[in-house]
Structures are given as structure tokens and as C-alpha cells.
Amino acid sequence: MTMLIPSEHDLHAYADGQLDPARRQDVEAYLASHPDAAEEIEQIRSQTEALRRRHADLSRYAAPERLDPACVRKTLRTRRRQRMALAATVALTLGIGSLGGWQARETAMRSGYLPMADAVHAYRMFAADAAANMVDFRSSQPSELQAWLNRHFMQPAPLPDFNAYGYRPVGGRLMSTESGPAAIVLYQASNGESILYYMRSPGRALNFTHGKRRDGDLMAQYWKQGRYLYAVVSPGNTPAARAVQQAVAPDA
């Protein structure tokens, strides 16, 4: 009788104990005469047993709680709330920081603020030298200059008259500032000395009050009237200019 050589499938089935009795006898007879095949079967059995032991009784071990779907959903909700709380905290911190920053900035600006510094700057630019050549609207008539202001501003204050102190108007000039439109009217004495009358929109100067201050060799006197802020800038130490300063503010 010819011995049938078992297939690889037969060998694995034999190693796993899944062959029927008749076929198992044939495989055992073959292995008895082929020790190398018998050794391979033992290796297969050893590997199978090792895998069985490694994965045996997995049903005894419950899945980790952190992998439970309900627990996963709860963790996600917790993390979402934590992120929202963190975002709110950051937003509040930034808000407080921004508010504090703006308050500090405003305080610093107040501490370094020079009232009507733009008027003094305008004097140095347009009135210090050759004032008559620095105007856009030339006129020595107060009525014409007043009409000119009326065309560009709503209810401006009456133009001051410094003729009694030796200063006559020579013209005006429109300007633009960060606070809005502005205008200057230049007055000049016979000796070439100039006085500048300045008006502009108040901008953010909500608590602006009248006052005066020296800026180098100049005196700036300022006040609020109606819709606008006004200033008269004059040389600080000449007799004629001091007379104007007394007229603008008797306590000057």
C-alpha cells in the first residue's frame, strides 16, 4: 500500500488536533518515518500553544474604563469645558490688560500733554518769520477775515482786535490737525513782530479748560468757547506782546 504524503494543510490540522481519526492515523504513520516533519509539527504546536497562552481568557479582562464610550464622551466634555474656561480667562486677561494699557497710555498722555501745543507749533512754522508771506487768505480787514472764518467754521467766535496794541491782521490760513480742521489768523506789528490767533475743533479734549503756559520764548493762552478751542500765541517778553496777553487774560 502506497503511503499518501500529507499536505501542509493536513500537517497544520494535525498539529491543531482537527483531523478526523482515519486521516490522523495516516499522518502519524508518515511522521513516524519522517522525523524532520515530526519536528516541524512540534514547532507548530509550540507556537500555537504560546499564542493560546498569550491570548487565553481575554474575556476575563474588562476594557479599561478610559476606553468605555461613556467615559470617552465625559472626558471630551470635560476637556471642552476646560478649553472654554481657558479661552474665557485669556479673553478676560487680554481685556483687562488692554483696558489697563489704555488707561496707562491715557495717563501718560495726560502727564505729558501740553495744551494747544499745535498752536505753538503753528506759530513757529508760520509766524516767526515773514508772517505776511505765510497766509493763504490775505486781508487786513477784520470783517473780511471774520467772513472767511464763517465760511469754513460753524459759528466761530468773533475775531479779536489787537489794533490798539499795534498788531494788525495780515491774513489767515486753513490747516488740518488730527483733531479736525483748524485755522490761524496772523497779526503783525510795524516792527515785524507777530501774534497768532488759532482755532480748531476740540477732538478728544472733552475736559479742556482755559489756561496759559510758556513754551520757550513764547506765551500760549488758550480757552474753549462754543464749538471750538482757541489760542493766542505771542512773544513772551516784549512790552507790546505783554499788553496783548493782559487783554486776552487780565491775570496773565
From TrEMBL:
Gene3D superfamilies: Anti-sigma factor, zinc-finger domain
Protein keywords: Membrane, Transmembrane, Transmembrane helix
InterPro entries linked: Anti_sigma_zinc_sf
Segments crossing the lipid bilayer: 84-102
Superkingdom assignment: Bacteria
Protein name: Transmembrane activator of PrtI
Organism: Bordetella genomosp. 7
